[in-house]
Design goal:
alpha/beta, Rossmann fold
């Protein structure tokens, strides 16, 4: 499978690096390809480096405006803008995982969720919820669901995995 990972390009707490690298090791062990944003910094780079060291193929997708951040150690696809970049993520990937991240991560994963809601795809979408990082978002989504703001039940749309192992089990149990 081709697993798209959204994550931070910043240097963050060690616990997020450890969980991200463990997830990358599991992906590599299972022979999955990593699709990512091609950053040469932070948590994202760390995860990609571990995936490559474990034997995973990696495809990075970058927009022209972010080309200075590109990591050239694997296949790179350059798109004209962020919208085209996100379209590539969707087309290239069989599942989507949000590791802890900031606005970019939230933008990318929520667009994937919105496209799923509209029936554009039916691929697994999950949050790697390391140390409860995404508990606030989970709570907000549950409220949106319970108050009728979401067309599909939260449990049908995504999964919050507390550990890399549970994330991998979910992907492999729900993948194409």
């Amino acid at each position: 499978m081709r697993i798209c990972i959204f994550s931070s390009v910043l240097d963050v707490d060690k616990k997020y690096f450890e969980a991200g690298k463990e997830f990358a090791r599991l992906l590599a062990r299972a022979g999955h390809t990593v699709v990512c944003g091609a950053s040469n910094r932070g948590l994202m780079k760390s995860v990609v480096d571990v995936a490559i060291a474990g034997g995973s193929k990696v495809t990075g997708v970058i927009s022209e405006s972010l080309i200075a951040q590109v990591d050239k150690g694997y296949e790179i696809i350059v798109e004209k803008d962020l919208a085209a970049r996100k379209a590539q993520f969707l087309g290239l990937s069989d599942a989507f995982v949000a590791l802890p991240g900031g606005f970019g991560t939230l933008d990318e994963i929520t667009e994937i969720l919105e496209l799923k809601k509209h029936g554009v795809h039916n691929k697994p979408v999950l949050f790697l919820n390391t140390d409860g990082f995404y508990d606030g978002i989970k709570l907000q989504l549950e409220r949106m669901d319970s108050e009728g703001f979401l067309q599909k039940s939260l449990t049908q749309s995504l999964f919050f995995a507390p550990t890399p192992k549970e994330a991998m089990e979910y992907i492999e149990g729900h993948g194409n």
